[in-house]
Amino acid sequence: MTRIATILLILLGVLLLLQFYPKAPKNQSAQPTGYELEKTHAVPDPVLAILQYSCYDCHSNHTNYPWYSSLQPVSFWLNQHIEEGKDELNFSTFGSYSLRRQYHKLGEIAEQIEEDEMPLSSYTLIHRTARLNSTQKNMVSSWVTALRDSFQANYPVDSLKRKKRR
Ligand code: HEC
């Protein structure tokens, strides 16, 4: 056997063995939390549709898995993104965050979108249509601004300010 063939065979063997690595349970909860973004705040349908389409795979309890996601190491890698993404921001539990966290995350959402940081580029590489065009960006950012303004109008400033980290 040539060297290349041996290396390819070893790689194939490793890939096959990797398939035995346990997969994390799917991020597809049937149980509503009662704290979903759209249940706790007014979200215009088109804005909700954008968030659901471009963000919910990593920022909610409901991921749409592509077929290749059941293959390792893809499964492992996707799961990392989902875990990390939900840790930072979960639209399925958004209403359970403290006022200050909600207020802050709203600002981050507008910022991340504006700077093309989100959706993650590794994601839009495959999910090209998840990229936001400028109209969609404006829609999300106007909604964020209006919602943040309503927080400011309805809650004391101190409840929205970030606590100093010690
Ligand atoms: C492929 C998975 C994925 C998608 C899709 C995705 N995100 Fe994220 N997001 C992450 C991960 C992972 C993190 C945490 C690490 C980081 O900041 O890069 C994160 C972090 C964030 C944060 C937190 C930043 C902070 O510092 O508080 C915000 C806000 C955010 N994403 C918004 C969005 C929005 C809005 C969309 C849709 C337009 C979106 N994300 C789409 C994976 C994703």
3D structure, described in words:
There is one protein chain. The chain is mainly alpha-helical and 166 residues long. It has one domain (24-159). It is 54% helix and 0% strand. It has eight helices and no strands. Helix 3 (45-54) packs across helix 8 (134-154). The radius of gyration is 20 Å and the shape is elongated. It binds heme C (HEC). Heme C binds at residues 54-55, 57-59, 81, 84-85, 88-89, 105, 108-109, 112-113, 118-120, 123, 132. The site of heme C has 20 residues, from helix 4, helix 5 and helix 6.
Topology, number of strands: 0
Order of helices and strands: HHHHHHHH
What ligand species are in this complex?
heme C
Radius of gyration: 20 Å
Strand content: under 5%
Helical run tally: 8
In total, how many domains does the architecture comprise?
Answer: 1
What portion of residues is helical? Answer: 40-55%
Q: Outline, from the CA principal axes?
A: elongated
Structural class: mainly alpha
What key phrases describe this protein's structure?
about 55% helix; elongated; about 170 residues; binds heme C
Structural topology:
Blueprint: H1 3-18, H2 37-40, H3 45-54, H4 56-59, H5 74-88, H6 99-114, H7 121-124, H8 134-154
Helix pairs in contact: 3-8, 6-8
Bound molecules: heme C (HEC).
Heme C (HEC) is lined by residues 54-55, 57-59, 81, 84-85, 88-89, 105, 108-109, 112-113, 118-120, 123, 132.
